[in-house]
Amino acid sequence: MALPLFKVTICGIPELPQHCAVGVSHVLSIIDTHEPRPPALDTYRSIDHELIRFDDVVAEYPGFEACTPAHIEQVLAFGERVHARPDGHVLVHCHAGISRSTAAAAILMTQFAPGNEEEAFLKLLDLRKHGWPNTRMIEFADTLLKRDGAMLRGLVAYRKALLDVKPHLKDVVRNIGRGHEIPT
């Protein structure tokens, strides 16, 4: 099965006002547990909105709420609604539009397209120039969707392609404590 036809836009909270007039039909917000609902969402009319709260961490850390399988089940339930409208336009955002939102976008694109995981992840290169999808989210999605590692292989292919174009990101990723995610 091919990738879905719906349009995907990825952004961070500061960019939300830029997208409210472009025909968005669905918005997936993934924000920190303490973050207030972004007021910019009030400018979106007639949308299907899902707000999911967890922190952008890739492991359990004291003081943070890490992603759980239940959170990814919420993403997949939202994906059911998105896929019901193939002509839709889904906007996925997190705080900065880098980690949780890019992971969620890849999950939505692959949810009903088994065998196209690498293609979906590589599409992120065009959708968001500076993404680094949250590994924990992808691990849970791979398990829930029974992809036997295909999503993780797609993630690695994406990261290798991104680092080929932007090798300086290796230092950025190491500096934020996620150096273990850099593919060898």
From TrEMBL:
In terms of superkingdom, the source organism counts as Bacteria
The UniProt record lists the Tyrosine specific protein phosphatases domain at: 76-131
One Pfam annotation reads Y_phosphatase
Stated name of the protein: Dual specificity protein phosphatase family protein
The scientific name of the source species is Reyranella humidisoli
